[in-house]
Amino acid sequence: MTLTDQQATSRRRSVWEVGKTALLLGLTSFGGPVAHLGYFYEEYVKRKKWIDEKTYADLVALCQFLPGPASSQVGIGIGFMRAGVWGALAAWLGFTLPSAVALSLVAVWLQHHSWGDAGWMHGLLLAAVAVVAQAVWEMARKFASSRFEATVAITAAAAVLLAPGAWSQVAVIAAAGGIGAVGVRKNVAPSSSAAGIPPSIRRSTGLTLLSLFAVLLVALPLIRTWIHSPLLELFDSFYRAGALVFGGGHVVLPLLEAEVVPQGWVTANQFLAGYSAAQAVPGPLFTFAAYIGMAALGWKGALVATTAIFLPSFLLVLGAFPFWHWLRRHPRFQAALAGINAAVVGILLAALYDPIWTKAVKGPADLAFSLGAFLLLVVWKWPAWAVVLVSFVGGWLRAWLG
Asked: What burial letters (b/e) apply to 276-313, b meaning 16+ CB within 10 Å?
């Protein structure tokens, strides 16, 4: 066997190892993105020692700066550093596949059962109230703690409530970034250029990937106006959601709701019930896209929606690798991000009211039910999947007992 053959065999083994490890994590990683990062640290840093602690911390910081699902992006980055582009794909596929398949099957099951006023579905809607309220609470403490940031958050909430729609949310995010760059003061800690993420991609390649990200973001809506294809429309909507969502999986809720419910792909109740179901499966919350795609257009829709919502993560993570040390040291960049994060809190607060509260809470009993679920999440520290299951059973019992 020649040296080239040995290298190819070694690379295939590395890709296989990455995929197998990521699949195990995808089957067992409950608890949301923060918990996922803990699982990744234990597996990739402590046990397998594929990267050191400094590189892992640097990669997590990069993914927190970028829009999209941070935990999935960290997995993509580790897979790339371990086994190249195929390693990145294997890491994403392994971590994503279990929850995408599970939520697709949930969508199939729900298509063959009557929605009506089912008690179990109402329980899922009330669980969504508690889950999103917890997300708003925790994100507000982190991203909207100052007077300036809180003002941006409340203004953003009012703006998207008064002018609902996906493009109004995009405009609010863009405006908040500009305001943050001017009005937020950020202290930037110095970083060592000798440590952290290795510059394993040329700058020209990074620029190409980032340019492709921007071109798709602009071109897809234009192409959609010329070519009327349900799958193309689905791809555009989910690509935009994956490209513009800052702050983690919960924040995808308002942007997707504004995209898919007016299109008639799912009803508001189906959307929120599926969002609650997404809390009960391991892996990234962005696989909620598979549920919507399946409900809208079957297996092709599930595949297209899931691919589209994660594609920006590949382009951004790999494209940003050569520039990360500059980005993290640039005060204006961090200030703009602070403004965006504050606006994201406001957008999620608006979503907590409409559509979640308006669809789920119909009276005092519903409010008491959601408060109980919130108590379990925030005070008793129950995992979200357990609260969702309890709410499912509780909603069914309420309806059964009358």
From this structure: bbbbbbbbbbbbbbbbbbbbbbeeebbbbbbbbbbbbb
pLDDT at 1 over 80: no
pLDDT tens digits, residue range 308-326?
999 999 999 999 988 877 7
Q: How far is CA 180 from the centre of its chain?
A: 23
Residue that wins the pLDDT comparison between 79 and 249: 79
Q: Kindly give the residue spans of alpha helices, DSSP state H, lying in 1-146.
A: 3-28, 33-40, 53-65, 70-111, 119-143
User: What are the distances in angstroms from CA 97 to CA 51, 94, 104, 197, 237?
Assistant: 24, 6, 10, 27, 21
**pLDDT bracket for residue 157 (50, 70, 90):** very high
User: What CA–CA distance (Å, rounded) separates 180 from 174?
Assistant: 10
Q: What is d(CA 254, CA 272) in angstroms, rounded to the nearest whole number?
A: 11
Q: Are 345 and 140 in contact (CB under 8 A)?
A: yes
The pTM is what?
0.83
